[in-house]
Design a protein that fits this description.
With 383 residues, this protein is an alpha/beta fold. The chain has twelve helices and twelve strands. The strands form three sheets. The protein has a six-stranded mixed sheet, sandwiched between helices. Strands 2-1-4-5 form a four-stranded antiparallel sheet. Strands 7-8 form a two-stranded antiparallel sheet.
Amino acid sequence: MLGSAMAAGSAFTVGLWQPAGLSPVAADASASAARRLRGQVETSRRSVGTVEPSIASQQSPSSVSMFAVALAAGLAAARPSKLQRSRAGARKHRAVATIMSATTDASVVLEVRDVQACSADDEQKQILKGVNLTIREGEVHALMGTNGSGKSTLARVLTGDSGYEVTGGTATLGGKDLFDLEPHERSLAGLFMAFQSPPAVGGVSNLDFMRAIYNSQRKARGEPELDVIEFYGLVTAKLEELKISTEFLNRSVNEGFSGGERKRNEMLQMSVLEPSLAILDEIDSGLDIDALKDVADAIYRVRNADNKRSLLVVTHFERFLKYIDADHVHVMHKGRIIKSGGKELANRLDAEGYDWVFKEAAETEAAEKEAAEKEAAEASQTA
């Protein structure tokens, strides 16, 4: 699964893979320091060049050389104007994006119709039993429910996890049939997934990893790839926006990271890859209150960077929704979405739990069954 996500070029590992600190390095490093580091930059470029985008499609990514932390000072001195322009542009973009809109007039990003899926093992257990969901540009949808309701299964089915088999229904992303695309093709089409438990990749630095998948996306669009210096300028602007330390770039992907650091790292990768739809699979899981607020803040910043970006947030903690601005809330139970609403639904779930929703759904199902049986009986009598 890790391989497929990295190939996806997103931070979720279906080719989407998938994201914590401090501001970027001070820009007062001397020009002489930059010159001394120039040789290191060239060496690093050659080393990073060995990390081909295909690393994402491998089940066990190969080790590559780590990028020297010292590069930070040299880049700050050598290209301060470029970094400043990037950051100024990001601030301007965020200002424009503060006015969010999620109306029925917006274009549909994800359309899920009667999706059914089972496990791909010998048991072939039916998990999804007819899921319907529509997500439009700029909308944030929260998918809630108790453990075992099918929330994470839906996320993984959409991203192409080979552990599940689609047995019915359709799903389109931007008009493209998701089920006709390989995992990495779904990522290139704009899909991203952040995992509940992001795996660690020893020997591969975050800088190398993100540059490889970012360039794989540019290559797919027919755009020139960024060299290590150009990419560093792009990613440091993202670090500043998300308040993440530059030390993340030289650490191996998620190796030795705390739960909060792993989740913030997912947000960084999502910010760099800029997907049209990001699926966050229980990104709040295992976080303390401070880490939870940090991750929620990162989600807010990433969302505000593009008012057309859509999010599907999978969670079973109602209180997490107090930290994010969800437009739509859905409750999933026994493989189906049984109730949808707005923030008021999340508030009631927080206060009363799920029992009332399950009872309401059972009554509705019984009434529909009774009506169907009555209709069948009348048709039989008529015949």
